[in-house]
Amino acid sequence: DSWPNIDLEFDTKTFLKNTMDLNKWAIKQDIAAIGQPTDKSQWGMSPQTINAYYQPVFNEMVFPAAILRGTFYNPNAPGALNYGGIGGVMGHEMSHGFDDSGRQYNAKGQLKSWWPKDVVEGF
To answer: In this structure, are residues 73 and 85 in contact, taking their beta carbons and an 8 Å threshold?
Structure first.
């Protein structure tokens, strides 16, 4: 896996310009990816980010390294605290596989309805 090389010049005095330049760079990257094979090694967030996400196209949950510290996980804490902390995050991300967006993808990550019609209507 790799992290993209963001070949931009940043100036500490021009936050708005830096943000706009970074957004332009990201849009160019997204446009260049259209029609290309999916790069499964591409990360959706940095390892330093304290967050997590569910990616329905890959049917995966992602937990960057930084979330495995502090409030959510502590190697010196009792197991029950860790199960509650990181387990709650994992359960939350897993639920996205069945919410109004995630339920539209099948186990292979294809945008294909797999719920019976009566269940969809009841949902």
So the answer is: yes
